[in-house]
Amino acid sequence: MSRPAFPRFLSEIRIPGPRVLRTEALAGLVVALALIPEAIAFSIIAGVDPKVGLYASFTMAVVIAFCGGRPAMITAATGAIALVVAPLSREYGVEYLLAAVVLGGVLQVLLAVTGFARLMRFLPRSVMVGFVNALAILIFTSQLPHLIDVPWPVYALTAVGLAVMVGLPRLTKAVPAPLVAIVLLTCFTVFAAVTVPTVGDQGELPDTLPVLGIPLVPFTVETLLIIAPSALAIALVGLIESLMTAKLVDGITDTHSDKTRESWGQGVANVVTGFFGGMGGCAMIGQTMINVKSGARTRVSTFLAGVFLLILVVALGEVVALIPMAALVAVMIMVAVSTFDWHSVQPSVLRRMPKSETTVMVSTVAVTVGTHNLAYGVGVGVLVAMVLFAHRVAHLVEVSSVLDPDGTSKVYRVSGQLFFASSNDLVFSFDYANDPQHVVIDLSAAHIWDASTVASLDAITTKYAARGIEVTVTGMNHDSSTRHQRLAGHLAGGH
Predict the structure, then answer these.
(1) Which of 384, 385, 386, 449 is nearest to 423 (CA)?
(2) Under 8 Å CB-to-CB from 186, ≥6 apart: which residues?
(3) Residue 464, Cβ neighbours under 10 Å: how many?
(4) Contacts of 388 (CB under 8 A, 6+ apart)
(5) In degrees rounded to 5, what are phi and psi of residue 475?
(6) Which residues form the STAS domain (predicted)?
(7) Which of 101, 172, 189, 349 could be bridged to 280 by S-S, CB 3.0 to 4.6 A?
(8) Which DSSP letter does residue 206 get?
(9) pLDDT tens digits for range 45-67
(10) Residue 149: what are its φ and ψ, rounded to 5°?
């Protein structure tokens, strides 16, 4: 009997050797430095104090280091979750947001138990590309309010920040370019006494450790109805992005990770962060890539990233408050640019890509951007993919016939996948009025997938029987035969 998944992490805690520990610690420090501006920026997107995003990044990184299924993956406050919770935060306040985060975590645990991770295999690539592109667009558009009706130096600072982040990596990657841009712009605005909006203007920064507490909301059905849609979106969007990131890291490191454990680990992390005043989050593709490319391969780097982040913010809170908002806007624009899958919109790729795939991607992006809800976009994208796939497969069914030389029997050969979309027209592929006394329907090159096909076969045999013609169905494989024997003659409307 296999051991329970939840307590198994206790046996996985191992102290690495000095060399590995050094690599993991340095990777965690680099990630922590890069997390600070993004956590603050995501807080502003969500409409909450910067400390809410910073607390989330700390608690989630620490919890997922123990509970997650993918070592070296970074979980923290993210733009995807910030976009999901922003409407709830604006309308009802931060306490309702925290309650939604807790409920979203509970839903993620339930989805993990019911095998949601296994369903990821049914998520088409075009939907995932649309998800990523829509996320990038929403992150970019969320920065536009910070560029409207602001002092003119904001535009100059933003442009300089973008130039630094584009140019510095071409010279060196020893330090994160976003961090360098933020330090330079902050120093300039402070020493030059340039008056522009700063992080301190956006809300309170943490100066203490997060405190455990229950969200201050009424425990009523009305509250549940208010937070449930956001909680479901947090659960679905968080799991989709986390599992996509885990799959990406699996490929880079040539290792396999436990996706089910990662799913409930994300849920536990969100429950914990909600009780500690964090805005929730999920796995971060960008920060995970920084961590992995820095050489990290264990949970130590993830744990230390969270710890270093909190230490830096609590110790340097007054300095962080001086960061100009223009610097964070530049960081988030670069995040949006790097998140967008530019390869997917290249003319050469679009010409080569089937129109159905492009339609699925565009519909995912359009619905997501139109509703500002990533869960809606993914849902519509999957639905469109299913409809287009069914339509395409339905036209792959062929029916050919051969009449015996003596004219006493006729063989119809059916090939293709028979299901509700393709079997509806099957009834009209037979010449009932002119066929001989014996008809053979050969299904050796076909497969019966559902009751609709069995009902269609019943309708065909009924039509022939009304004319006194005997029908024999042959060639069914085991699965088709089992389904046909169980349902044939028992379906209403099989005429």
Answers:
(1) 449
(2) 319, 322, 323, 324, 327
(3) 19
(4) 356, 359, 360
(5) 80, 5
(6) 411-495
(7) 101
(8) P
(9) 999 999 999 999 999 999 999 99
(10) 55, 50
Cβ neighbours, 10 Å, residue 449: 18
Instruction: State whether the Cα torsion 265-266-268-273 is positive or negative.
Output: positive
Could you give the C-alpha distances from 269 to 101, 265, 314, 325, 360, in angstroms and in order?
Answer: 10, 6, 21, 29, 32
Tokens of 176: 């994160």
Q: How far apart are CA 315 and CA 303, in angstroms?
A: 19
> How does strand 409-418 pair with strand 398-403?
antiparallel
Residue 459, Cα to own-chain centre: how many angstroms? 44
Q: How far is CA 357 from the centre of its chain?
A: 18
- Could you tell me which of 300, 427, 433 has the C-alpha nearest to residue 24? 300
Single pTM value for the model: 0.75
Q: Encoding tokens for residue 403?
A: 């009449």
* Tokens coding 463: 């039509």
Residue matched to tokens 């709830």: 88
Distance (Å, rounded) from C-alpha 480 to C-alpha 474?
A: 11
**Alpha helices in 207-258, H assignment, sequence order:** 221-253
- Which of 140, 61, 48 is CA-nearest to residue 94? 48
Q: What is the mean pLDDT of residues 140-158?
A: 91
At residue 14 the predicted structure's pLDDT band, cuts being 50, 70 and 90, is: low
Question: Within a 10 A sphere around the Cβ of 288, how many other Cβ atoms?
Answer: 25
Strands 409-418 and 438-448: parallel
CA 157, CA 188: separation in Å to the nearest integer?
A: 9
pLDDT digit string, tens, across residues 86-138: 999 999 999 999 999 999 999 999 999 998 888 777 788 898 889 889 888 98
* Inter-residue contact 397 to 431 (CB < 8 Å): no
State the virtual CA torsion across 359, 364, 365, 370 in degrees, nearest 10. Answer: 120
The answer to whether the CB of 480 falls within 8 A of the CB of 448 is yes
* DSSP designation for 216: -
Separation CA 415–CA 428 (nearest Å):
15
CA dist., res. 187 & res. 193, Å (int):
10
Q: How far apart are CA 174 and CA 180, in angstroms?
A: 11
- Domains present along the chain, CATH in parentheses: 6-346 (no CATH), 398-487 (3.30.750.24)
What are the beta bridge partners of residue 410?
403, 439
The CB-side HSE value for 70 (13 A sphere, CA atoms) comes to: 33
How many CB atoms neighbour CB 190 within 10 A?
14
In single-letter form, the type of residue at position 434 comes to N
Contact present, 64 and 302 (Cβ < 8 Å): yes
